[in-house]
């Protein structure tokens, strides 16, 4: 059950967190771009008439870049959610239960939007 909290973090505390999240977002976007660029299917000099071994290597490389890009995309979404919650004044408040997220958890994962209890419940 969600409850409305009136607890908000002071601006002086949120500003460095916002800067960190924006820096991480920028870094992850560059990382994703580099991952996608490394996809063997995107190579303009790629030959269509490869040996079986080369085809397998390309397929594995394509799959690898696809998995990595999806992983980074999920991290980007999480950072954007945290930045949105920060802008709305809901940073540090669990999006599921409405309780304050433990500051130790936020220190370790500043992009988190749910408390440890809700995360444990969703994993079980």
Descriptive notes:
Helix content is 63%, strand content 0%. It has 124 residues and is an all-alpha fold. The chain has a domain of 80 residues. The two termini are 18 Å apart.
Overall mean pLDDT stands at 88
Q: What is the string of helix and strand elements?
A: HHHH
Low-confidence regions? none
- By helix and strand content, what is the structural category? mainly alpha
Give the helix tally.
Answer: 4
Q: How many β-strands, per DSSP?
A: 0
User: Helix share of residues?
Assistant: 55-70%
Beta-strand fraction estimate: under 5%
Radius of gyration: 20 Å
- Main sheet summary: none
Report the principal-axis shape: elongated
Taking the alpha carbons of the first and last residues, their distance comes to 18 Å
What features would you highlight for this structure?
124 residues; mainly alpha; single chain
Blueprint of the fold:
Elements (H helix, E strand, L loop, with lengths): L10 H27 L14 H37 L14 H6 L7 H8 L1
Helix pairs in contact: 1-2
């Amino acid at each position: 059950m969600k409850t409305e909290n009136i607890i908000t973090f002071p601006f002086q505390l949120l500003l460095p967190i916002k800067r960190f999240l924006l820096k991480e977002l920028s870094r992850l976007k560059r990382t994703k771009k580099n991952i996608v660029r490394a996809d063997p299917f995107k190579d303009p000099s790629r030959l269509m008439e490869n040996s079986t071994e080369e085809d397998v290597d390309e397929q594995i490389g394509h799959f690898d870049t696809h998995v990595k890009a999806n992983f980074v995309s999920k991290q980007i979404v999480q950072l954007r959610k945290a930045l949105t919650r920060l802008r709305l004044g809901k940073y540090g408040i669990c999006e599921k239960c409405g309780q304050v997220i433990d500051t130790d958890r936020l220190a370790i994962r500043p992009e988190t939007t749910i408390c440890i209890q809700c995360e444990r419940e969703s994993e079980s």
